[in-house]
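Following up on my earlier message about adenosine-5'-triphosphate. Here are the inputs again, as you asked, copied directly from the submission form:
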Amino acid sequence: MRLETKQLSVGYNKPKVEVASGINISIKNAGLTAVIGVNGSGKSTLIKSLSGLINPLQGDIKLYNRPLNTYTVKEIAQKISLVLTKQRLPQHLKVIDFVALGRQPYTNWIGIHEYQDKNHIIKALKQVKMYEAKDKACSRLSDGQLQKVLIARAIAQNTPLILLDEPTSHLDMYHKAMVLNLLKSISTNHDKSVIFATHEINLALQLCDSIILIKDKQVIHDTPQNLIHSGILHELFPQDLIKFDEKAQLFKMNRI
Ligand SMILES: Nc1ncnc2c1ncn2[C@@H]1O[C@H](COP(=O)(O)OP(=O)(O)OP(=O)(O)O)[C@@H](O)[C@H]1O
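Thanks, got it. Here's what our run produced:
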């Protein structure tokens, strides 16, 4: 088992806020998993908890069958790459230097890259089709290019798990599909378990192998088909503006 939680409760201390509880998730193999839920339901909190960035309130998280809290930061970084889209990028860095940061868990104590590290960096840039832009400053990238560079850094980190918080925010419809397609191909062709928080529920239902749905502090982890047939998607949002169309398997706007 790559990543597993048992009766996990996530949230914050001081003041104590429980965001979701009773979370039982298991990520066994490579695949694409979306974390969905309404604004403020706890998607980011769950992603940060699963990656060890914030401590759980209760329950267990196991990474390769070993409690996450027994791993050092460096050991976690060799298993999980975390892409936080809301974070600020060092604007002065060139694309290639930013992607090289993904090799930090493997470089020696003065941060020198070996030949193998350089290979990983170049391969990652080529995989997201940003090799030609490798010498550009990060400050000169469009939002879509920036997302690809963030993903390239995670690919260069070469971990079995990649966790991302809203990798498609600020992107147009085409670039949202492009980024999700890229994540799908990484998971399928490179044996990665990719877990990402998203508001793109329609795309996630079409593309993902599994979905983690957060609703009213409860979490369900299942296949898109099982979720669709369970009827829970009808209850996700108030029905006055959008409705889940079970036949089309997507959310649609109500006719005026
Ligand atoms: N550092 C924090 N301390 C206390 N509460 C927090 C903190 N960060 C978030 N919260 C609260 O936790 C809850 C879940 O927030 P979170 O950001 O995880 O939701 P989300 O589903 O990712 O939201 P969105 O879709 O709007 O990005 C919210 O009620 C939020 O106010």
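One observation from looking it over: The first strand starts at residue 3 and ends at 12. Hope that helps, and feel free to reply on this thread.
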